[in-house]
Amino acid sequence: MWDWKYAWDILPQLLSALKMTVWVTLCAFVVALIIGLLLAFAARSQFKPLSLITKGVIEFIRNTPLLVQVFFLYYSLPVLTGISIPAFYAGVIGLGLHYSTYLSEVYRSGIEGVPKGQWEAATALNYTKAQTWRSIILPQAVPPIIPVLGNYLIVMFKETPILCAITLVEMMLTAKNIVSQSFRAFEPYTLVGILFFIISYIASLLVQRLEKRMNLQRGK
Amino acid sequence: MPDSWIDFLPTLLKGAEITIVVAFFSAILALVVSFVAGLGRLSKLWIIRTLTAVYVEIFRGTSLLVQLFWLYFALPFIGIELPKMLAAILAIGLNFGAYGSEIVRSAVLAVPKGQWEATVALNMKPWQRLWNVILPQASLRMLPPFGNQLVELIKSTSLVYFITMADLTYQAMVLRNNYISWTTEILVLLLLMYFVIATLVSLAVRLLERKLTAGRL
Amino acid sequence: MLKAIGIDEQAELSKVPGQEGNRIDTGTKPIVKYTGVTKSFGDLQVLKGIDLEMQPGEKVAVIGPSGSGKTTLGRMLMTLEEPTEGTIELDGELLWHTHEKGELVRAGEKHLHRMRSNVGMIFQHFNLFPHMNVLRNVTEAPRKVLGLSKEEAEERAVSMLGKVGLADKLKMYPSNLSGGQKQRVAIARALVMRPKVMVFDEVTSALDPELVGEVLEVIREIAEEGEMAMMLITHEMDFAKEIADRVIFGAEGRIVEQGTPEEIFDNPKSDRLQSFLQRFRSNGI
């Protein structure tokens, strides 16, 4: 059933692929953080066409599968633009863009969580719009959403196996390759599952601790 | 060679059928599991609480694609061979059931304590308390998050492509292989079809929600 | 030991259907009896030894400063809070305990279920079921718990809702009712179960002042009918004085003084009660 020696032999390969998985996750997360914030601003824009289009784009991305979006980036974009994208960048952009729509929602709730009186106080003190955002709104809006962002980082980590479809050599594809050489699937896929579990479980414990500490600081 | 993108529709619709079948059955499994595990986590018996917590942590801690691969490719090595359809429904249903159990659990916990007390004061039996008073109220709270989960579930059915089930994504990728120069049309069409399905479903959930809450809360 | 045998006899008696209503000696035996009851939440002891009896049909008002454990007293009778020490008897039978091989043990849900049919409670925050209309709120328990048919339950409910002045609101949902109306529905909901004892837990405290009157009026009418014993945990001193047969003043987890309304309100003996009443009057509540 379970071959310890075989499992031990393939573990190094999987561990080095894990580095790639983590790296893709982090890069995609940065993309999602930035684009998500831009989307959140654009969706709040006073300029109606911009906010409508933004909301439409968010809705479209959220209601279609990440896998198909990644296929589109990897296979279609080169045809349309004439520039081919390496699998890594297609993966980072695809994953990042997909989750930017979720993060824009998180930012929105954070921003709307700041009481209206704060805006009014800023106006009363004659802050400019940029000053209001920078020194009044964002400092209050961002801390409460940090644990939520942390949870999305974990969610994105668990989505990376999809990227094996565009030949990004992360953990899943590495396991697939091992299986196709050895014709033994039980150990590789079980190990991949265990590695995913360990990392996401530890990460979620960290997020929980962070959340608790922040709640304490805010005196909840 | 196809004359226009219309020619792809019959093949894609055939794939959509599989997508919908997988989504339908895994959604039902997920719903059942959500309630069983969600209530299990609130059980008085520690053994039930522990077992359900372990299930939830395992399925939330690993990713859906890994679970699907494990059920379909790894299990045969210990003598369990599942048909594709069953493996797909099990993987998606159990994965979303784990997330759904959190929705059920928190919705039940969100019902005010006074409601429990009123059921005690009216001398209801424990299952009557849950079934007649607590769950009907909790269900209304569950509806919006369940609606979101349903859209996520429909999107996730695209992963059955990896175990070569002839769903929407798989049919599209076969078409693309045959007509490489039509890649963009096919993929745009594919995106649009998912979008239509997911949007219709989320609209339906929202309508249901409005109907159920009308005049009450 | 003698006492324990007595209790067992009572238990046998009350299991016989039809025997409960017309027992001849009800006048002499208390319907509720607290013996040495204490209650602690963690380190905090909110009740420090309560002995209390209520006769069938007796209206007992419980007054006292907040934090004196009044509400806990009522919640124990409704089995919402378990006594830490001591026993409560209901209609001659132990509420929270059963005898097993001569020893007192914590009773199971089955026993509690049977005992609870003698008690009802009205809550400060009404606790109506928001997903059911007024009629359903009142018929749900008679149908599910007492096993009445839909017709029987509705007949009972409609007549009770008529009594509390809400016959025209049957199809409304709680969210569309005023606080006073909600509380009257809650009273009807508890009354259709026909308990022998009803706990009123600060039933007007959550109401706007202008809605208090209508609820008190309904309670006054119920009290005048006389059959049901009532434990009125309240801050409404005038009301307590008017309808109670006996008033209990509790403070810091003990019963400090009890007596007729006249004795308590017009002739308070203890300093604690005197200062409590004084503060109440000067606050003009």
From TrEMBL, chain A:
<keyword id="KW-0813">Transport</keyword>
<dbReference type="InterPro" id="IPR035906">
    <property type="entry name" value="MetI-like_sf"/>
</dbReference>
<dbReference type="InterPro" id="IPR010065">
    <property type="entry name" value="AA_ABC_transptr_permease_3TM"/>
</dbReference>
<keyword id="KW-0029">Amino-acid transport</keyword>
<keyword id="KW-1003">Cell membrane</keyword>
<dbReference type="GO" id="GO:0022857">
    <property type="term" value="F:transmembrane transporter activity"/>
</dbReference>
<dbReference type="Pfam" id="PF00528">
    <property type="entry name" value="BPD_transp_1"/>
</dbReference>
<feature type="transmembrane region" description="Helical">
    <location>
        <begin position="20"/>
        <end position="43"/>
    </location>
</feature>
<protein>
    <submittedName>
        <fullName>Amino acid ABC transporter permease</fullName>
    </submittedName>
</protein>
<keyword id="KW-0472">Membrane</keyword>
<dbReference type="GO" id="GO:0006865">
    <property type="term" value="P:amino acid transport"/>
</dbReference>
<comment type="similarity">
    <text>Belongs to the binding-protein-dependent transport system permease family.</text>
</comment>
<feature type="transmembrane region" description="Helical">
    <location>
        <begin position="191"/>
        <end position="210"/>
    </location>
</feature>
<dbReference type="InterPro" id="IPR000515">
    <property type="entry name" value="MetI-like"/>
</dbReference>
<feature type="transmembrane region" description="Helical">
    <location>
        <begin position="64"/>
        <end position="89"/>
    </location>
</feature>
<dbReference type="InterPro" id="IPR043429">
    <property type="entry name" value="ArtM/GltK/GlnP/TcyL/YhdX-like"/>
</dbReference>
<keyword id="KW-0812">Transmembrane</keyword>
<dbReference type="InterPro" id="IPR014341">
    <property type="entry name" value="Ectoine_EhuD"/>
</dbReference>
<keyword id="KW-1133">Transmembrane helix</keyword>
<dbReference type="GO" id="GO:0043190">
    <property type="term" value="C:ATP-binding cassette (ABC) transporter complex"/>
</dbReference>
<feature type="domain" description="ABC transmembrane type-1">
    <location>
        <begin position="18"/>
        <end position="207"/>
    </location>
</feature>
Automatic annotation (TrEMBL), chain B:
<keyword id="KW-1003">Cell membrane</keyword>
<dbReference type="InterPro" id="IPR000515">
    <property type="entry name" value="MetI-like"/>
</dbReference>
<feature type="transmembrane region" description="Helical">
    <location>
        <begin position="186"/>
        <end position="208"/>
    </location>
</feature>
<feature type="domain" description="ABC transmembrane type-1">
    <location>
        <begin position="16"/>
        <end position="201"/>
    </location>
</feature>
<protein>
    <submittedName>
        <fullName>Amino acid ABC transporter permease</fullName>
    </submittedName>
</protein>
<feature type="transmembrane region" description="Helical">
    <location>
        <begin position="85"/>
        <end position="104"/>
    </location>
</feature>
<keyword id="KW-0472">Membrane</keyword>
<dbReference type="Pfam" id="PF00528">
    <property type="entry name" value="BPD_transp_1"/>
</dbReference>
<keyword id="KW-0813">Transport</keyword>
<dbReference type="InterPro" id="IPR014342">
    <property type="entry name" value="Ectoine_EhuC"/>
</dbReference>
<comment type="similarity">
    <text>Belongs to the binding-protein-dependent transport system permease family.</text>
</comment>
<feature type="transmembrane region" description="Helical">
    <location>
        <begin position="20"/>
        <end position="40"/>
    </location>
</feature>
<keyword id="KW-0029">Amino-acid transport</keyword>
<dbReference type="GO" id="GO:0022857">
    <property type="term" value="F:transmembrane transporter activity"/>
</dbReference>
<dbReference type="InterPro" id="IPR010065">
    <property type="entry name" value="AA_ABC_transptr_permease_3TM"/>
</dbReference>
<dbReference type="InterPro" id="IPR043429">
    <property type="entry name" value="ArtM/GltK/GlnP/TcyL/YhdX-like"/>
</dbReference>
<keyword id="KW-0812">Transmembrane</keyword>
<keyword id="KW-1133">Transmembrane helix</keyword>
<feature type="transmembrane region" description="Helical">
    <location>
        <begin position="52"/>
        <end position="73"/>
    </location>
</feature>
<dbReference type="GO" id="GO:0043190">
    <property type="term" value="C:ATP-binding cassette (ABC) transporter complex"/>
</dbReference>
<dbReference type="GO" id="GO:0006865">
    <property type="term" value="P:amino acid transport"/>
</dbReference>
<dbReference type="InterPro" id="IPR035906">
    <property type="entry name" value="MetI-like_sf"/>
</dbReference>
